[in-house]
Amino acid sequence: MESRDVPQERNVTLGGYHKAVYARDESGRIVPVKSAGWEAEETVTQQAVAIFQVKAKAARLRALAGECSPLEYWMYARRMDLSTLAQNTGIWRWRIRRHFRPAAFARLGDPLLRRYAEALGLSPDALRRVP
Questions:
Q1: How far apart are CA 98 and CA 68, in angstroms?
Q2: In this predicted model, what pLDDT tens digit does every residue of 24-43 receive, in sequence order?
C-alpha cells in the first residue's frame, strides 16, 4: 500500500486517536503512516466486542448460579480469551480452565490471585466478586 492510499475514514472504535499503519513512501521505503482507521476494521472490532459481551453475560449468569468462578466472567468482561489471559499471567491454559471451577478458584492463594487481578486490571477483592 502506498502512503497516500492509507485509509482515513474516522474509525469510531479508535476514539479519535490514530494508529500506525506501514506503507511505502515516495522513495519506496516502508514507513509508519498515521491512519484514522477504516470501515471494515470498525465493523470487525464492533463484532468482536459484541461476542465478548455475550460471553461475559453468560459467564456472569453461570457465576451467580455457582457453576463457574468469577474469573471466567472477568476474563470475558475485560475482552480476553483463554489464550490472552494465559499470555498475560504466564499461567498455563489448562490451569486457568481449572480455576474456572468455583471450588478450585476458592482455594487460590494470594500470589496467584494477584497475578490474575493485575492482568485483568482489578483488585484481588474485586476479582472474587461478580457484579
A1: 10
A2: 988 889 999 888 888 888 88
